[in-house]
């Protein structure tokens, strides 16, 4: 029976705009308020250090801290150890974490602490507890804090695994992902250059801190290299690398700048030859991480050369949100380019045709877009994405656009079909949380490969910022920080052991055990990684699980059925409609801008290469890093907003680079055939082909060149005429530059056209009136007498003049 009924998901109750987890409208989607209410309000007990596993009957030594959170002094408190029976499944482990304390039995005596704590003060304790764990298994443990009267005021809960192997069982195969990602924090608004990359400008130097010898990224890599020296561990693990991180660290090696603004994207129009080599340099502070970047990248190359690697989506972007933009180029950059970045920088592309979803599930409608991860047919390595763009533009059928609104102003959500890919030539495997390792077709050529959702949920609830998985049951969600970080990391290691133990089958069973995939959160910290990787190493090297290659886990049986009906999820971490709409607008405008430019064989830069970093801005805005944690969601949503604001500002600057400049806002013409003059300028590094469009009253028509080619960083003067309705007040028009489909690019320019009333017909009327006037004058003169005859004496004539005078 196919248990993979939820290969696609429908997200319910997602807010229209980001809301803080404490907002009453969404708070219960993050945490069930009935689970462990008021724990830690008065005081808190938390583990600082404890064994991550034990052998049966081993003593348990623990280091604790007790903190007074109340306004008064507390003293006479007690630590009471409790233990529940061993759990048999991962779901039982999750229920034990929220069970009533009375379901835990008391183990040994309570430990009274004869100390007094002032408000806000804390104290550390080291205790030996007699938990008496009797056999191989996974046990729920509770350290309960009691006040002087014996009333419980807090607890720290965790699960502890007892090492070992039962007799007459067959172990399951196990493989694990080891994700490595980080926020790269490239300052928004970068555009491409050629033949080299543009100068790297980071908004902060936080990435350098993570690459430093004691930084998170260095610890992750060092821990893995050490663990992978055991052959079974190296064989059973696959390092999931964020290609955005690899690409950025590669660029950091050559030096970079930390600044809060970058040089202007658009230069003043100048001759192209004058612009060569004259790019403005940023004026921020030099970054400090170039040397550490080189050292770190060399270590990652060692991993890639000897073990398994697989590319995460670019910037660990939420692929459901990317698909909702309806933009195939954004989706292609998210899932198609990654392996080829690994090939260029590390020397290997890693596991191909594989998608590691950050959200852990695939929304209904997203699956067809994941077909772009068919790397077997990609030509990026040979000719880059720009060649695919040029072919697509050559085959495109342009649909006429009406109206003066550019893509940046449209407020309609996109059709998901726009991001769909052709049917893959080779199947694309998509990892999705489910009941276990099941396979199901979610679109033609796109197959979902399941892993245990309960294990993934427990692993996600680790570290300093525990995450809420969107595929978990809402009733079982709670504020995971009520337990200490060390407790949750210990529980994660125990969950890995429990998954292996629960999969054991008798040696004579007809069917073998189901393989296990360990899928930790992508942005985990080094301590959690050490705990989980240690459990994996212990299992595969000690015989409690058999090492399995990641590629083998992905291998589907010959007969695979279609997936079942989509399952409804309530995911408060999902990107909202407001956020997706902003990305949709900007992605569409980037496409319009790219199509507006014209390839020039004399210029090394391609039009797709120029706008590629702008697309990457949008993928970084849709990164799911930090977004799934209650403690960091608001900061992640703000980071998305800031990046989209910075990206939009850069696009607005680029929009202003292709513009119309009228000599004045009012044209006064002497006749309808009089030309109107206007300057079209282009501040982009490639030529553009555009057309002058307008909006105006009914009956107005503009006679302008059909296609206008403006040179790179240059301008042209355009002469045109207009057929306008007869109006005493003239005609008001809005002129703008548009692409091949009429899609507005530039801001509209308002002009008023006035035609003087002395037109051709007016001149005829004036001439007739002049002749009539002359006749009147002649008639008046005839009435006064005829002019003197030449035969009359001159003196008479002079006499007559004197009289008149």
From TrEMBL:
<feature type="compositionally biased region" description="Basic and acidic residues">
    <location>
        <begin position="789"/>
        <end position="805"/>
    </location>
</feature>
<dbReference type="Pfam" id="PF19516">
    <property type="entry name" value="DUF6049"/>
</dbReference>
<feature type="region of interest" description="Disordered">
    <location>
        <begin position="267"/>
        <end position="290"/>
    </location>
</feature>
<feature type="region of interest" description="Disordered">
    <location>
        <begin position="783"/>
        <end position="805"/>
    </location>
</feature>
<feature type="signal peptide">
    <location>
        <begin position="1"/>
        <end position="20"/>
    </location>
</feature>
<protein>
    <recommendedName>
        <fullName>Secreted protein</fullName>
    </recommendedName>
</protein>
<dbReference type="InterPro" id="IPR046112">
    <property type="entry name" value="DUF6049"/>
</dbReference>
<keyword id="KW-0732">Signal</keyword>
